[in-house]
Amino acid sequence: MGLFSFFSREKKESLDKGLEKTKESFFGKITRAVAGKSKVDDEVLDNLEEVLVTSDVGVDTTLNIIKRIEERVARDKYVTTSELNGILRDEIASLLTENNTSDIDGFELPATKTPYVIMVVGVNGVGKTTTIGKLAYQFKKEGKKVYLGAADTFRAAAVEQLVIWSERVGVPIVKQQMGSDPASVAFDTLSSAVANQADVVLIDTAGRLHNKKGLMDELTKIKRVMQKVVPDAPHDVMLVLDGSTGQNAFEQAKQFTAATEVTSMAITKLDGTAKGGVVIGISDQFKIPVRYIGLGEGMEDLQPFNRKEFVNSLFGENK
After folding, report:
1. Are the beta carbons of 253 and 282 closer than 8 angstroms?
2. Do 15 and 310 contact (CB within 8 A), yes or no?
3. pLDDT tens-digit profile of 175-215?
């Protein structure tokens, strides 16, 4: 299978539609930034810097991109504003490639780790439980035996929501009473998953950030207890972020990466916002692979993040 061959026409159309608001806002701002200018000069670069920052790319990543463009302008001596989109596209694509934002071939998982344990973290309201449900659907569709663990015992609604997803997708769930020890739920989930030869386990966790030490202690305990059943669990600690919150998503990423070792990210709700630039900034600043992006409410609307297709949808196909 080729590197991008899994990316079907339907997925491409969904991605184009999902990034439509971001694209319209982004290029509208760029058009205004270069209005009346034929050459990329300091004023155009200042205007472009403002465009990137207000598109939620983030200050540090914006300065990185501007520096790259300045170096290219200095090297090529004369760069027209008509060339700017192509240059910007190239630099963003390079940035995503350099920052280990690897393309995932569909919803495949390493065959050497069974069950493959994913611990999902993120604050309440970002789409964490919904993302777990969509992942369960996709993994089951791939022929995987999936187990869910309702370890967010702090909120009754979180357990109830995950139960609804388990019934909707048709996969087993392990849960306990509200207020139960989350690590105990994780232990029971993995024990059941191992006994029943599951392929993948998705563990939901509480999304409280008011006490970073409390969060760190809880997540550390969950990991330690899971390792009594599966010694190298979790294989992936996935942080779910709401792309529509823009800079607030950066702050959440800072908090969670400080509290635990995050190994991948899923960025949700990109279809309802013009803040899709946050994907670029988060990838650059945290050097953690963005694995999935959410582009709608349907079970099919969670896609593996493909940097090439993301840039194509944002800028239009590279001719």
Report:
1. yes
2. yes
3. 998 889 999 999 999 999 999 999 999 999 987 765 667 88
